[in-house]
């Protein structure tokens, strides 16, 4: 007669142990939820920062490229001017 | 003679029945308590599962954000390298420009000197 009572009490004790473990787990998950939320926010901020970094570097590249093109055009114009300055006297001498 | 034997078995049965009834009642209450605790345990497990799923989605989103940030930073670094290359070319072309301008000035000065000498 005492064995079924022990089984019920044993099962009750096991359920109590599991309940305590579940409560501890729920508490940890609540803490983790706050940490995960902060982590998501920080990763979102990092992503936005990376996007801005990408935009800025792209603008810098375009700026440098435009400067490069301008210098190229200026050099071409100056070289043409140099050639003109050299060729005109020669042509004048021949005529 | 027949009355006395009938009385004794009734007393014995009553005592045994009371004990068994008390035992069954206690066991029933314990079983109900056990079922109630298991029900609460199920509720806690459901809550835990919901939180795990939610945090899993948040972690996946965070991982995607980090991956995207990594790719964009790498792309940005490549852009910076290209910008540095263009800047270096610009410096070289500035030097070339200065040299060409000096050549033009030399030619113009030479022509001026010749012109003055002719006078």
Automatic annotation (TrEMBL), chain B:
InterPro entries: Syntaxin, T_SNARE_dom. One of its GO terms (biological process) is vesicle fusion. One of its GO terms (cellular component) is endomembrane system. It comes from the Eukaryota. Residues 21-83 form the T-SNARE coiled-coil homology domain. Signal peptide: none annotated. This is t-SNARE coiled-coil homology domain-containing protein. It comes from Dictyostelium discoideum (Social amoeba).
């Amino acid at each position: 007669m005492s064995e079924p009572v022990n089984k019920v009490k044993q099962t009750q004790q096991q359920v109590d142990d599991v309940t305590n473990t579940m409560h501890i787990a729920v508490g940890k998950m609540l803490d983790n939820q706050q940490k995960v939320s902060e982590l998501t926010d920080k990763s979102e901020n990092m992503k936005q920062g990376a996007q801005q970094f990408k935009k800025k570097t792209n603008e810098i590249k375009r700026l440098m490229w435009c400067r490069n093109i301008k210098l190229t055009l200026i050099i071409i114009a100056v070289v043409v001017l140099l050639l003109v300055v050299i060729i005109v006297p020669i042509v004048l001498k021949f005529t | 003679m027949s009355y006395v034997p009938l009385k004794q078995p009734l007393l014995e049965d009553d005592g045994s029945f009371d004990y068994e009834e008390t035992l069954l009642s206690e066991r029933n209450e314990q079983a109900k308590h056990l079922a109630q605790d298991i029900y609460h345990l199920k509720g806690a497990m459901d809550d835990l599962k919901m939180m795990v799923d939610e945090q899993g989605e948040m972690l996946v989103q965070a991982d995607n954000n980090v991956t995207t940030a990594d790719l964009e930073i790498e792309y940005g670094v490549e852009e910076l390298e290209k910008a540095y290359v263009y800047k270096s070319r610009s410096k070289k072309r500035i030097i070339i420009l200065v040299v060409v301008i000096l050549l033009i000035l030399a030619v113009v000065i030479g022509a001026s000197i010749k012109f003055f000498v002719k006078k």
